[in-house]
Specification:
This protein is α+β, with helices and mostly antiparallel strands and 468 residues long. It has helices at residues 14-27, 61-85, 134-137, 154-164, 174-184, 190-198, 210-220, 242-245, 312-317, 346-349, 407-415, 435-449; strands at residues 37-44, 48-49, 89-96, 101-107, 125-126, 223-224, 231-232, 267-272, 278-282, 293-297, 306-309, 335-338, 356-359, 380-383, 402-405, 425-428, 457-463. The strands form 3 sheets. It has a 6-stranded mixed sheet. Helix 11 (407-415) links the parallel strand 15 (402-405) and strand 16 (425-428). The longest helix has 25 residues, at 61-85. The chain is globular, with a radius of gyration of 27 Å.
Length: 468
């Protein structure tokens, strides 16, 4: 945290939290028998996650809207304190006594812990500095006997664009194209250079008014980035939480036109669809693709790309691409889900190519991991609470890089000294207000095994009186 002005709100001052604590005490009143009540949440500079009011029916929209407004007013002092301190967000727990005193615990951010998702529980624990999941380390396979599509025609592309573009369009010079190639570290394909020789993609070159911008959009078929904003969509450009990223797998079939990568040094992004999806020239196509084909990178997906056109010429002229391939699986899935609706057991998921095993809600007897012991590529295990017959079997999974378990299963591994040392990241599956502090303590135990920064608690006490 940065130094603060004497008059600035402090993240650790009771007065900063008092409006929120008064609100939460009303919404989470202690029991009539004197038992304390609890609340927890997360507050960031741009958003917050708090427990909802329990005595308001979901159908009462007016009361719920009023509750949201009350939350906004109550968290405002905390958000202002975070802004002053230069802190992105903070999590907290609060224990309310029947008499009025409240114990607030502010949980400091650790650089080794990702933020939790919608709760005060810690997110993934980053056990190895800078480590990323295996799909984010995967580079494209070499392009096999592939060249540009027969439809690629830079000269036709130039003629078509010059007919379509507004009169004020200004093309990039050879020097500007060379500077872009030097910045990107990759030669620009001829079709892309042809496009930017017609227009640099700068709005001021097209003239003023919405009509000029709309004509420019229709001319190219997308929101064209200025040449200086063209970028390479490598894996780092698709940074994702470990809890999601560890569940992905790179799969490219023999008949795929596009490699199923997170990112590629050959994906050169030049435009946007207008809805957040990016268009890229693909210089590292799949086995059935063409060098220079156009792919779409969805903002809703962490991995993979969709073939849009065999060439930039096809995209500009509105021609349909050939089949993208990948019509069916070549073998058992690399990511397996065992639960009451999917695979019927661990044995059904086991095969040499298995990379990710997720065990979800399971209503039968707990499962043994014996069928997957020794599998060469298994790197992720996620097990819902109560689904493992013997958590110590995890010690036999020598290649795990990510492990997500319940507090009870983690306790078994910790007490036995059996936490896999191959891990790069881990997570604890936990729910509820009272469990947050025990989850934090457990997380700190795991972090300590790798000598990683701890989650620090600051205790703040005060009195909000008897309300409600």
């Amino acid at each position: 945290m940065t130094d603060q002005d004497a008059n600035s709100p402090s993240v650790h001052a009771f007065s900063t939290w008092e409006p929120l604590l008064r609100l939460l005490r009303v919404w989470r009143a202690p029991g009539r028998d004197g038992t304390p009540s609890y609340a927890s949440g997360r507050i960031g500079q741009g958003s917050w996650s708090l427990p909802s009011r329990e005595d308001v029916p979901r159908s009462d929209r007016f009361a719920r809207d009023a509750g949201i407004r009350a939350q906004a007013e109550a968290v405002d002092p905390v958000r202002r304190a975070l802004a002053v301190a230069g802190v992105e967000d903070v999590t907290f727990t609060a224990e309310f006594s029947a008499a009025g005193p409240v114990t607030l615990r502010v949980l400091g951010r650790s650089p080794a812990v990702e933020s939790g998702i919608g709760s005060a529980h810690p997110g993934a624990l980053l056990l190895v500095e800078g480590a990323v999941p295996e799909p984010w380390r995967r580079l494209p396979e070499p392009v096999r006997e592939s060249g540009p599509a027969p439809s690629a025609d830079p000269a036709l592309l130039v003629r078509t664009l010059r007919d379509r573009m507004p009169p004020g369009a200004v093309g990039a010079t050879d020097a500007e194209l060379g500077a872009a190639e030097a910045r990107l570290g990759v030669p620009l394909p001829e079709e892309l250079k042809a496009l930017y020789r017609v227009t640099r993609g700068q709005g001021e070159d097209w003239g003023e008014g919405a009509d000029a911008a709309e004509r420019a959009y229709r001319s190219v078929g997308c929101e064209l980035f200025p040449l200086e904003e063209v970028y390479v969509a490598n894996a780092a450009s698709r940074a994702t939480r470990w809890q999601f990223a560890a569940m992905e797998a790179v799969v490219t079939r023999d008949d795929d036109a596009v490699q199923g990568l997170v990112g590629s040094p050959g994906w050169i992004v030049f435009g946007d669809t207008g809805g957040g999806d990016r268009l890229a020239v693909d210089l590292t196509p799949g086995p059935r693709g063409y060098v220079g084909q156009i792919v779409l990178l969805s903002h809703e997906l962490n991995i993979g790309a969709e073939l849009i056109a065999d060439s930039l010429t096809d995209l500009i002229l509105g021609r349909e691409s050939g089949p993208s391939g990948g019509s069916g699986p070549d073998g058992p899935p690399a990511v397996a889900h065992v639960n009451r609706r999917s695979l019927p057991g661990v044995e059904a998921a086991a095969h040499p190519g298995l990379e990710v095993l997720s065990i979800g809600v399971w209503e039968a007897e707990p499962l043994s991991l014996a069928p997957v012991l020794g599998l060469p590529r298994l790197r992720t295990l996620v097990a819902y609470p109560g689904t493992l017959a013997d958590p110590l079997e995890i010690a036999g999974l020598k290649g795990l890089e990510y492990l997500e378990l319940s507090p009870q299963d983690w306790r078994v591994l910790l007490d036995a000294g059996a936490v896999p040392r191959s891990l790069s990241a881990a997570a604890i599956t936990a729910h509820g207000n009272q469990e947050v502090l025990s989850t934090v303590a457990l997380a700190n135990e795991i972090l300590a095994l790798w000598d990683r920064p701890q989650i620090i608690q600051t205790v703040v006490e005060g009195d909000v009186g008897i309300t409600g």
